[in-house]
Amino acid sequence: MAFFEIKFKRSAEKDLRHLDRQFVPQVVARIEALANDPFPRQSIKLSGTEGLYRVRVGAHRIIYGVDVESREVLIHYVRHRSDVYRTLSRPNVTYERPASPGNG
Question: Model confidence at 98, in pLDDT bands (50, 70, 90)?
Answer without folding.
Answer: low
